[in-house]
């Protein structure tokens, strides 16, 4: 006997849909199976299976007062003096890896 199914209708940006489906195709996973997997993970986690949060706040230097800017520069200088630094090539490599570029 066949398993009953339900229809799901969702609106999504075409570019997001195309990129995701292209990756799923490479993996050999139909979109409907991926959505079922996602829903099952929601059930198992009793919520979204990943963190949903705002990224760390980025300092907008153009909106800082002189004293705030001086404080931010001092923090960077202290990091450098204390040896809390990495080489620029490593920093860019980490950024590329983190953002998938």
Concise overview:
The chain is mainly alpha-helical and 101 residues long. Helix content is 56%, strand content 0%.
Which features characterize this protein?
101 residues; single chain; mainly alpha
Description:
- By secondary structure, the chain is mainly alpha-helical.
- The protein folds into 2 domains: 7-52, Arc Repressor Mutant, CATH 1.10.1220; 61-99, no CATH class.
- 56% of the residues lie in helices and 0% in strands.
- It has 4 helices and no strands.
- It has helices at 14-27, 31-45, 66-81, 88-99.
- The longest helix has 16 residues, at 66-81.
- 0% of the residues are buried.
Lay out the secondary structure.
Layout: H1 14-27, H2 31-45, H3 66-81, H4 88-99
- Give the CATH topology of the largest domain: Arc Repressor Mutant
Q: Helix coverage percent of residues?
A: 55-70%
Q: C-alpha Rg, in Å?
A: 22 Å
Q: What is the strand tally?
A: 0
Query: How much of the polypeptide forms β-strand, as a percent range?
Result: under 5%
Instruction: Report low-confidence residues grouped into runs of 5 or more.
Output: none
Number of helices: 4
Protein name: XRE family transcriptional regulator
Pfam families: RelB
GO biological process, one term: regulation of DNA-templated transcription
Family: Belongs to the RelB/DinJ antitoxin family.
């Amino acid at each position: 006997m066949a398993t009953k199914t339900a229809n799901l209708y969702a609106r999504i940006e075409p570019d997001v849909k195309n990129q995701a489906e292209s990756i799923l195709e490479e993996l050999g996973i139909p979109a409907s199976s991926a959505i079922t997997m996602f829903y099952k993970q929601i059930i198992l986690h009793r919520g979204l299976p990943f963190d949903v949060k705002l990224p760390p706040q980025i300092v907008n230097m153009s909106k800082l007062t002189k004293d705030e800017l001086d404080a931010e520069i001092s923090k960077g200088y202290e990091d450098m003096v204390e040896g809390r630094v990495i080489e620029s090539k490593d920093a860019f490599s980490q950024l590329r890896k983190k953002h998938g570029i």
